[in-house]
């Protein structure tokens, strides 16, 4: 068994305060016996006011939250999956970027969110991530973590099963799905989609989430989850902030896949024909 931790936060508009909260979570996770901590999407800054947010954005090498997290990981001897940070990209836009950091504080992998969320919701909320963010271009997995091979996704990626299929076919043991899901879509789809992705892939899914009412006015759903390869929910953090723990047994993957070897039965699907 490997113990992991999830940080469920209500990230605000002040990176310094968010960085302190993240460091506190790292210390708490390590003190609780976790070998790896998973944090939500936008762990360093969550601000829908793009002009205000722009004043806090930095390139990766100058991002203070990333630097603080790396130092805390090294000090606490724990791996981190930082769900994502907003960092300035080379093209002038912003990258919504996940990081895997080892217990030495070294960055072992980066992943930029592929699928961007552009939508007008019935609630009156409007989101245009493509106005600000650059879309990622590649599937990313990292070997050698305490929970085996980890595949990286972010939030809206959850709705694109082919990405999860590619990760599963690359023999991942766990998929990280950090998120800042809205409340209406969270209530309708969060649990069912995460359980479905775990069942389809026959691997663990870990989804650290934002929760509650944020300084920028948005509301997020919470319910950070750990789902096992059979689709069983091992941890549901509800609607409270804090650090939660779950135990991962990688032997569970082979057990489930031996009963339902769906990955072995996949065949190329021809183009659809309309008659």
Provide a quick synopsis of the model:
The protein is an alpha/beta fold and 275 residues long. Helices cover 26% and strands 29% of the residues. β3 and β4 (94-101) form a beta hairpin.
SS class = alpha/beta
Low-confidence stretches: none
Helicity level: 25-40%
CATH class: Alpha Beta
Would you tell me the overall average pLDDT? 93
Amount of beta strand: 25-35%
How does the overall form come out from the CA principal axes?
globular
Kindly identify the CATH topology: Nitrilase/N-carbamoyl-D-aminoacid amidohydrolase
Number of strands: 17
CATH-assigned homologous superfamily: Carbon-nitrogen hydrolase
> What count of domains describes the coordinates?
1
Give the ordered list of helices and strands.
EHEHHEEEEEEEEHEHEEEEEEH
Descriptive overview:
With 275 residues, the chain is α/β, with parallel strands linked by helices. The protein has one domain: Carbon-nitrogen hydrolase (Nitrilase/N-carbamoyl-D-aminoacid amidohydrolase). It has six helices and 17 strands. The chain has helices spanning 15-31, 50-54, 64-76, 161-169, 183-201, 251-259; strands at residues 2-8, 36-38, 79-88, 94-101, 107-112, 118-120, 126-128, 133-134, 141-145, 148-152, 174-176, 204-207, 211-213, 219-221, 225-227, 233-236, 242-248. Strands 1, 2, 3, 4, 5, 8 and 17 form a seven-stranded mixed beta sheet that branches. A six-stranded mixed beta sheet has the order 9-10-11-12-15-16, covered by helices on one side. Helix 1 packs parallel to helix 3. It starts with a strand and ends in a 16-residue tail after the last helix. The mean pLDDT is 93.
């Amino acid at each position: 068994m490997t113990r992991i931790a999830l940080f469920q936060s209500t990230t605000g508009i002040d990176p310094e305060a968010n960085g302190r909260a993240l460091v506190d979570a790292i210390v708490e996770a390590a003190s609780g016996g976790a070998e790896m901590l998973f944090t939500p999407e936008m762990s360093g800054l969550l601000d829908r006011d793009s002009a205000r947010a722009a004043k806090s954005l930095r390139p990766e090498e100058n991002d203070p939250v990333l630097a603080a997290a790396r130092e805390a990981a090294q000090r606490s001897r724990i791996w981190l999956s930082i769900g994502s940070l907003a960092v300035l990209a080379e093209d002038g836009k912003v990258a919504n970027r996940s990081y895997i950091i080892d217990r030495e504080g070294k960055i072992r992998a980066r992943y930029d969110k592929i699928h961007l969320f552009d939508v007008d919701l019935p609630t009156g909320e409007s989101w245009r991530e493509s106005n600000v963010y650059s879309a990622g271009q590649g599937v990313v997995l990292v070997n050698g973590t305490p929970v085996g091979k980890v595949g990286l996704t972010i939030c809206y990626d959850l709705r694109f099963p082919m990405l999860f299929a590619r990760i599963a076919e690359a023999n991942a043991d766990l998929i990280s799905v950090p998120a800042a899901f809205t409340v209406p879509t969270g209530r309708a789809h969060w649990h069912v989609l995460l359980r479905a992705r775990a069942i389809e892939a026959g691997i663990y899914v870990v989804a650290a989430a934002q929760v509650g009412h944020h300084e920028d006015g948005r509301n997020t759903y919470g319910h950070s989850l750990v789902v096992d390869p059979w689709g069983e929910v091992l941890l549901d953090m509800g609607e409270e902030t804090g650090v939660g723990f779950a135990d991962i047994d990688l032997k569970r993957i082979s057990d489930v896949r031996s009963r339902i070897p769906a990955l072995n039965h996949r065949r190329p699907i021809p183009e659809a024909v309309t008659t």
